[in-house]
């Protein structure tokens, strides 16, 4: 068992723990190069208990074990975690022979969508394996004076396919959710707000506990252009990079405006052209881009915001997408996690204006999002890192998986069309739970 220490920080509650049942203390961190063949497929290295992942196109980070962990909640969940991480980084002894983004001391995090309850987690694993281009590395993170013998030689249980998975409605069925959409459209029409993002859930139940490595493997294979993640039971494949900060540069990929693919190339090209001209989708997208640019501007000495979006093609849907970029001037004092906080919730997952939209979500959505649509990703000791939005995602607990999907609602949204879009967004995780 691990020891836990609870203390109030800000308006939230913080829980920290360390390995070996002892209080969290200074960490020894060592990163070394390893033969790429040793980690040819990063997911194959993972044990079945407590893995963390952040992967795209075969590259990224995986890890396991807990060297240190913090759980935060409430409105100060980001600030509390960031302060704790700064203290951990300041006292760590780091030997990094690789010096690539993702080497040295790193943590993986997943943060609650709403301020209440806002339950969130930031974890420094005991073992991290990373790949970037032709470079592969191994990082071990231990309490000072301890070590991990043969960190890649642990016994890995066979990945188990889910058994007898069935699906059912979550908080609301389709008819009830369309009624909620209609209510939101009426409120937008009255001038109460411009846009709101409303989500629904779907519950999958299996005959036995689900091995999260199974859906992770399927997601990396089927959606290689997305970021496949798993942190503390929350997993998925997100197409949306909330913020990446690397060596003074910051980027954010904004997605808003969606259409379902048919599987026929000519028809999909025509749909992509229609999406690019759709006034409804362009309006929704403009709100999202504006909210991201406005949030990043105070942190940047210069920015590039494209005038028009491009169409991002994914296996199940197409999105209007814009990549916002900038040069940060406050990297020494503001981490990538705090940048993620400043961007969250963007119009892509909340709405416009943000206070009115988030209040409406809490009033009519009918469920607790938990960490769905919140920031998820990783951060290093310098505060650089990548934080996506936990979309196309689900929460795993034993034999139960709760899937989430959301849609941006504006004045001319059609409830039936929005229900169809939500169904399309369930597809990645739903298919990933299939045994075949």
Could you describe the 3D structure shown?
The chain is of the alpha+beta class and 436 residues long. The chain is 25% helix and 36% strand. It has helices at 77-91, 174-189, 213-222, 265-277, 279-296, 336-343, 354-364, 415-432; strands at 4-9, 12-18, 27-33, 52-56, 59-64, 68-72, 93-96, 106-110, 120-124, 127-132, 135-143, 166-169, 195-205, 227-231, 234-238, 241-246, 249-260, 300-304, 310-313, 317-328, 351-352, 375-380, 385-389, 393-397, 400-409. The strands form two sheets. Strands 3, 4, 5, 7, 10, 11, 12, 13, 14, 15, 21, 24 and 25 form a 13-stranded mixed beta sheet that branches. Strands 1, 2, 6, 8, 9, 16, 17, 18, 19, 20, 22 and 23 form a twelve-stranded antiparallel beta sheet that branches. Strand 16 (241-246) and strand 17 (249-260) form a beta hairpin. Helix 2 packs across helix 8 and helix 3 crosses helix 8. The protein is globular. Residues 1-9 and 18-23 have low confidence and may be disordered.
Question: What structural keywords apply?
Answer:
436 residues, alpha+beta, 13-stranded mixed sheet, 12-stranded antiparallel sheet, 8 helices, 25 strands, globular, disordered N terminus
């Amino acid at each position: 068992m691990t020891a836990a220490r609870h203390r109030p920080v800000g308006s939230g509650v913080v829980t920290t723990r360390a390995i070996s049942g002892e209080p969290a203390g200074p960490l020894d961190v060592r990163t070394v190069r390893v033969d790429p063949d040793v980690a040819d497929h990063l997911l194959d290295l993972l044990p079945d208990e407590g893995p963390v992942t952040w992967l795209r196109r075969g590259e990224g980070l995986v890890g396991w074990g807990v060297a240190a962990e913090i759980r935060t909640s409430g409105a100060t969940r980001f600030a509390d975690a960031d302060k704790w991480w700064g203290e951990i980084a300041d006292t760590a002894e780091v030997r990094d022979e690789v010096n690539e983004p993702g080497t040295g001391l790193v943590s993986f995090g997943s943060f609650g969508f709403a301020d209440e309850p806002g339950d969130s987690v930031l974890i420094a694993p005991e073992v991290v394996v990373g790949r970037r281009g032709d470079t592969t590395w191994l990082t071990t993170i231990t309490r000072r004076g301890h070590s991990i013998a043969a960190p890649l030689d642990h016994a890995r249980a066979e990945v188990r396919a889910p058994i007898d998975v069935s699906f059912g409605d979550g908080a609301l069925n389709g008819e009830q959710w369309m009624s909620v959409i209609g209510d939101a459209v009426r409120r937008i029409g009255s001038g109460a707000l411009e846009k709101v993002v409303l989500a629904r859930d779907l519950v999958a139940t299996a005959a036995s506990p689900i091995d999260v490595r199974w859906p992770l493997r399927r997601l990396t294979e089927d959606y290689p252009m997305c970021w496949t993640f798993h942190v503390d039971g929350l997993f998925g494949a997100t197409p949306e990079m909330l913020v990446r900060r690397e060596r003074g540069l910051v980027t954010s990929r904004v997605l808003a405006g969606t259409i379902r693919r048919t599987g026929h190339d000519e028809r999909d090209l025509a749909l992509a052209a229609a999406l690019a001209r759709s006034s409804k989708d362009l309006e929704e997208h403009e709100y999202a881009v504006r909210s991201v640019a406005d949030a990043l501007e105070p942190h940047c000495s210069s920015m590039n915001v494209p005038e028009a979006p491009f169409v991002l093609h994914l296996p199940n849907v197409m999105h209007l997408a814009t990549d916002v970029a900038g040069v940060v001037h406050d990297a020494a004092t503001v981490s990538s996690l705090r940048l993620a906080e400043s961007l969250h919730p963007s119009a892509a997952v909340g709405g416009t204006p943000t206070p009115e939209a988030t209040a409406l979500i809490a009033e009519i959505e009918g469920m607790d999002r938990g960490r769905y649509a919140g920031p998820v990703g990783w951060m290093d000791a310098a505060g650089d890192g990548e934080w996506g939005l936990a979309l196309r995602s689900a929460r795993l607990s034993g034999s139960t998986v709760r899937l989430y999907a959301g849609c941006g609602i504006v004045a001319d949204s059609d409830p039936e069309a929005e229900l169809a879009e939500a169904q399309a967004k369930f597809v990645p995780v739903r298919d990933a739970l299939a045994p075949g």
